[in-house]
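ARCHIVE CARD
Drawer: 12
Card no.: 0347
Subject: one protein chain, sequence and derived structure
Cross-reference: see card 0346
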Amino acid sequence: MPFQAVQRAAKALGVVTLIASSITLSACASTSTTSSGSGDRPGVGAIESVGAVDDRFRREGGSDGENIFAQIDWGTPTEMRLGSGMPGPDYWQQTCDYEIDATLEPDSGVIDASMRIIYTNNSPHTLRYIWMNLEQNLFRGDSIGTNSRTPGSVMKMLEYDFGGGYTIDRLETNGRDLEMKVYDTLGRFDLPSPLASGQTLVFEMDFSFPVPPHLRRMGSEVVEQGKIFELAQWFPQVCKYDDVHGWNTLPYLGSGEFYTDFGSYNVNLTVPRTYIVSGSGMLTNPQEVLTATQQSRMDEAMRSDEPVWIIKPEEVGTRSSRPAGDGMMTWRFKIDNARTFAWAASDAFMWDAASVAIADGRGGTRRVLCQSLYPKEAEVWGPDHADGGSTRYIRHSIEFYSDFLFPYPYPAMSNINGPEGGMEYPGIIFCGARTNPRGLFGVTDHEVGHNWFPMVINSDERRYMWQDEGFNTFINLYSKAAWYKEDVNIDRAMQQTIDICSSGNCQPIMTKPDRTWPRWVGGLMYRKTGYGLYLLREYILGNERFDDAFQGYMRAWYFKHPQPSDFFRAMEDGAGADLNWFWRGWFLEPDALDQAIVAVKDTPDGAIVVLDNLGDMVMPVRMLVEYRDGSREVVDLPVEIWHQTSRWQAGLKTDGRRVKTIILDPDQVLPDMNRANNRWR
């Protein structure tokens, strides 16, 4: 039975919550005792009392020793990061603005660019050198990532010596040359003079690189009507400097994505006249790169809930689809409060767009441009497709998450079809599905959702993939259910969680992405995390309590940089709940759950149900009790019953009824490793 159905049934039946106290029942003479067994565990013995009464099952360390309930040492709070999980009065973060002029030469596949970077040191520290992410160096045949990657993992293998990576022709500040020392995907240069707190460094760079074959996140693809380029993590970017790690210099190996500062981007992209370009943010010179007809269509799209063709299928590649003239064209984009900039270009794009009204934060509404650019091979993308097409999917996701979380902050969202299967950047996503409409909805909804996590709530993707992928998977559960008008489905996430927890040498969610077993990345970082948050909301805390805490976390870290401990602390503080057991068992350790009914004993005024917790993970207990007279009730026991013991004897008041059947986790919402011991009859 789906979880929502059991919730409705429980409400109708009247849920009974048993208090976890150790009391002795009067007149405990047994009328019948039936045991279902519990593996190699000792027998039940005499069942005379309720609670934690059997010394043989006392939890190690007593009530709060070295066990799952022990307080986790998150580190000493500071005025930078408070014990409540909120940023404190001393909180700071760096700012990094970029001005980039880049030219794409499609035949050679080379990008030539000049860049001006304005880096503001908001920290209280003096900086004497700068570290840069040089992510294109991953595509060299001798890179660490190339030589440490397993075939079939997140990123494909470089099958030949491509000779990728950056050529840096100029690096200077105020006319003074700077020397960069390059170490794989990282570069460091010393400053001519220290950069004190509050000061700004302006430096310039000329660089070029060949666009690599598509391994992951970026690349090019030849299609029937032309060529598609998707460019991401394409320019040298200043590493993140923070209060936790100083300079964040984990190398780019392929799985861990990125962790950068917010800033403003003004990017000018020069391409052949036949090419159409989309990038993060808004196009600022449509009058120069679009025809009068296309500009009129764009104006219509900004007022329309329904998709409008900007470039129709029959217009792709025609002279009339481009402004008159000769030579290259420069497309200009701007986006503020962004952690990076990505773009796509092609001479094979058809293009449709609409817009959606969302709250503007001032009591009114504003319209967000939702647009899709794709080749003719993308069969299910168009607005005429029976399932709705890409732009309608974007509209749904922007509207749903703006209501469920907080309003989408950027002016536009572009969905690009090309070589990349699924990737997200501020205001633009790359989605590869072409023939499967449900697949296209799923990847579109997921990548749009990333514009909340981590594009706004900016977590460290190099270390903690789960803090954006898992959060996003969690919100996707509700968005998908809303679009298809169905119940939330957690079956896949539950099964993958059980499979991982039952494997040898299983890993916890907190494992760094580049150190995660390749076949577990999706199950662990995406689905187990999202499933865990679903359980926290629907099963452990309840919607209201969870939502208050989660909203508080998001408000506090809006366009800021939370660490995992900030999230854990914020949820406990906002919910008013001790969740150490959940964080430790679900996130910090790979603990497995196995709840069991050991025995049931009838008494003159009720029954005693003997329960075992056979795994290291603990959860509240839900029992569906069916009586011989046909009546039923749902009984809930709090997780605190496992504080001192792994065997709990629960007193059940039956009002004279005889118990027929008891089922643990009747809605099958928990990742129980052995459901065979969940039923007594």
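Annotation on reverse: Confidence is low (pLDDT under 50) at residues 1-32. DSSP finds eleven helices and 33 strands in the chain.
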